[in-house]
Write a structure and sequence with these properties.
The chain is built from 23 helices and eight strands. The chain has 558 residues and is of the alpha+beta class. It folds into four domains: 27 residues; 220 residues, no CATH class; 132 residues, no CATH class; 78 residues, Gyrase A, domain 2 (2-Layer Sandwich), CATH 3.30.1360. The strands form three sheets. A four-stranded antiparallel beta sheet has the order 5-6-8-7. Strands 1-2 form a two-stranded antiparallel ribbon. The chain has a two-stranded antiparallel sheet with strand order 3-4. Strand 7 and strand 8 form a beta hairpin. Helix 2 packs antiparallel against helix 5, helix 11 packs across helix 12 and helix 15 packs antiparallel against helix 16.
């Protein structure tokens, strides 16, 4: 009997552990997806600021605009102001990330979270600053000149020590870049979700609820700052070592980045990978005008804002992870795929598919937003998905070995024009176009061949037995919103409404109530169900308007 009980217990515990592991996986995946979405919030303004900075840099280049325009004092002052303004945004990215994480990782009272996020960021770095000061580590004692004269060390070692620290909003602290913002933002979000509804005794209840969040932030974040005072040097060294490894791997490392970045698209976790190379030492380090700059996008934008010329080799080192690797794929390759999917669609579906493909191809070509097209095939054909990921990695590889120098983040025609063509022939922008034309035909013929040979159910080729699907793509957003609400199980099934750049994100009572066919009939390019409560519907650039219409129809107040 004892043995039977033991066996039952073992089986029960085994099933329990499997269940726990499963739910941990769901929770972790949901957390990372939400984290990735939150990290994208500052990127919209940074991408726009980068475009303005690129145009301003071109307008202050005498080789492009001529000496007469350079001598127009008023125009140059205005352009100089634009460069200064954009530079200020780039210089305060850690604070923007702290606020963004605080907003994006909470469900309610987002203005309070944003306010607390700014407080948390300041308190976090003030704590580290204070402890550093107690140890005699200041901006003066870590200056290269001071270290060489008073510590009897050479310039290289002194520069290495100096590079470990920076001044953020006037606060001398560890050089954590956006990690400081991410850490403080996540802590604030956790505190907010825990305490924003807290009830205190009547005598002090004025400080309860949302007012308590900045208070508890001021109490708890210094503890986090104390912990990171001790552990950050280790973390920072690991990041630095990873960056060194990637740099030594050359073009192969660039290929791996591009390949993995596309493979992560269905999960939404590519945002995390992108931000890591853009804003940490993984994306490279450079000394520009005596300042240590880390992260591919940081290096590129700092070079644009610099009043003195920056070495082309430094700039090219930074752009290897940026827009240049995407241009052949997004402007040309995916357009070829769109043409192939249209031509292989059933005749009676071609009018509908034509509208979808034109919208998706236009978004990809102009802005670099690819998900409406990618989600047309990545779930129905692993072959096409892996091919697309491989070709993206190859594109990054080719752009590096061909010496292309095109920065920013999107990879559409805007980036090509502003950061490639306008900056002159030194960018080697023409290689991106030549490779892109080749990519158009490679994508077109490969997609057409695989779709026909393997009978892939890309848009317009779905099985006829999908009954009950109402395919009515309306220009009326109110009508679209009502149909979305109905397709996901009605108003009572919707708990949270949110969106990112391309995806309508809904938290539902039961994902099982979703009618996928009707949902695709609203113009959705794809549907992702990360767990039993959440669904992501890919609509592309128009998702913001769709999300607002759904919120209005639902009378959504969060």
């Amino acid at each position: 009997m004892y043995r039977n009980v033991e066996k039952i217990a073992i089986l029960y515990l085994s099933d329990y552990n499997k269940s726990i592991k499963k739910w941990r996986c769901f929770i972790l995946k949901g957390f990372l997806q939400r984290l990735g979405k939150s990290l994208m919030m500052p990127i919209s303004i940074i991408a726009a600021a980068g475009i303005f900075l690129g145009i301003a840099a071109a307008l202050q280049n005498p080789n492009i605009v001529g000496e007469s325009f350079m001598n127009m004092e008023f125009a140059q002052n205005v352009i100089g102001f634009i460069r200064k303004l954009a530079g200020a945004l780039f210089g305060n990215l850690p604070l923007l990330f702290a606020i963004s994480l605080a907003i994006g990782m909470v469900d309610d009272e987002k203005p309070t979270a944003a306010f607390s996020g700014a407080i948390g960021f300041l308190v976090f770095h003030v704590t580290i600053n204070y402890i550093l000061g107690l140890k005699g580590i200041t901006a003066e004692t870590t200056a290269v000149k001071y270290l060489m004269e008073n510590k009897s060390i050479d310039n290289i070692q002194a520069s290495f020590i100096n590079a470990q620290y920076e001044t953020v909003l006037g606060i001398f602290t560890y050089r954590m870049n956006v990690f400081g913002g991410v850490i403080s933002g996540l802590v604030v979000a956790m505190l907010h979700n825990k305490f924003y509804r807290i009830k205190l005794p009547d005598a002090i209840n004025f400080f309860g609820g949302r007012r308590f969040v900045p208070i508890i932030t001021t109490i708890c974040v210094p503890i986090v700052g104390l912990v990171f005072y001790f552990i950050w040097p280790v973390i920072g060294n690991v990041i630095f070592q990873i960056g060194g490894f990637i740099e030594k791997s050359g073009a192969f490392g660039t290929f791996v980045f591009g390949f993995i970045e596309r493979l992560l698209i269905p999960t939404g976790l590519h945002h995390i990978l992108n931000q890591t190379v853009r804003f940490t030492a993984v994306g490279g380090t450079a000394n520009i005008n005596g300042e240590q700059v880390v992260g591919a996008l940081n290096i590129f934008n700092t070079s644009l804002a610099s009043k003195t010329p920056v070495s082309l080799d430094v700039v090219r080192m930074s752009t290897r992870f940026l827009a240049q690797g995407k241009i052949p794929v997004m402007m040309f390759g995916l357009v070829g795929a769109a043409v192939a999917m249209y031509q292989t669609a059933n005749e009676k579906e071609k009018s509908r598919i034509k509208a979808l493909m034109i919208a998706g191809a236009s978004a990809s070509f102009v802005t670099g937003i690819t998900e409406p097209l990618e989600f047309s095939f990545i779930f129905v054909s692993p072959i096409l998905f892996v091919f697309h990921a491989f070709m993206t990695g190859l594109s990054f590889f080719l752009m590096q070995i061909l010496g292309v120098m095109i920065g920013n983040v999107q990879g559409g025609v805007i980036d090509l024009a502003v950061f490639g063509i306008l900056k002159g022939m030194d960018t080697h922008w023409y290689f991106a176009v030549i490779v892109g034309i080749i990519y158009f035909f490679v994508y077109y013929f490969f997609f057409k061949f695989i779709i026909l040979v393997r009978n892939i159910e890309t848009p317009g080729r779905e099985k006829e037995e999908v009954e009950g699907a109402r395919v009515v793509i309306s220009s009326d957003l109110n009508e679209t919103a009502e149909r979305i609400i109905e397709a996901v199980g009605g108003r009572e099934n919707i708990k949270v409404i949110d969106n990112c750049f391309t995806r309508l994100r809904l938290t539902l009572e039961d994902v099982g109530k979703v009618n996928d066919a009707d949902l695709k009939g609203t113009g959705a390019a794809g549907i992702v169900k990360p767990d039993k409560k959440n669904i992501q519907i890919i609509y592309g650039p128009k998702v913001e308007q769709i999300a607002n219409s759904v919120k209005t129809a639902m009378n959504y107040k969060k």
